[in-house]
Structure to design on (191 residues):
């Protein structure tokens, strides 16, 4: 068994270094997925994997069973993540008085949702299909044309007419300029 720390300078075992590089190149994608599942965020997963691989490199000479490397690195990932959790600074503190916050009116959101779908039901089937594919399914004009078997120009003109009808719909307009139903459903949607 070799030393517990990596040799410095000219004493570096080139074969061990190449073995480690090969392992990292081959197994990083799978280990990154594991790290992502532990952290829930790609940037944190990359940091966690880098830290775990650095710890593994320091112990590379002591790992005798090369077939068990994935298990070893996964254990290092879990232990490192657990250490991060334990060291995490608490950002929230309990308070006797809760601050007043104005939140979104969920009832108005539901009303808006219902009004939008009612207005969509009033559209002819072809216009409704194009609006749903373009803005609900987020397909491009070309993708929508391909799905419906029509030209891109037909998608553009039909979608334009449908949006005009939605803007003029009595179900979506309440007459008040600050009413979210007059602005939210089709604001930002090109005419």
């Amino acid at each position: 068994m070799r030393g517990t720390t990596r040799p410095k300078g000219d004493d570096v075992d080139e074969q061990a270094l190449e073995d480690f590089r090969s392992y990292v190149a081959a197994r990083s994608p799978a280990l990154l997925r594991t790290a992502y599942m532990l952290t829930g965020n790609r940037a944190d997963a990359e940091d966690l994997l880098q830290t775990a691989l650095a710890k593994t490199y320091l112990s590379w000479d002591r790992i005798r069973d090369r077939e068990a490397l994935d298990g070893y690195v996964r254990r290092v990932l879990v232990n490192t993540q657990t250490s991060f959790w334990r060291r995490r600074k608490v950002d929230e503190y309990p308070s006797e008085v809760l601050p007043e916050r104005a939140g979104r009116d969920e009832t108005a959101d539901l009303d808006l949702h219902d009004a939008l779908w009612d207005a969509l039901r009033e559209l002819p089937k072809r216009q409704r299909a194009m609006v749903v594919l373009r803005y609900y399914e987020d397909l491009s004009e070309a993708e929508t044309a391909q799905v419906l078997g029509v030209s891109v120009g037909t998608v553009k003109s039909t979608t334009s007419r449908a949006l005009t009808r939605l803007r003029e719909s009595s179900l979506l307009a309440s007459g008040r300029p600050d009413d979210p139903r007059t602005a939210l459903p089709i604001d930002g949607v090109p005419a």
Observations:
- The radius of gyration is 29 Å.
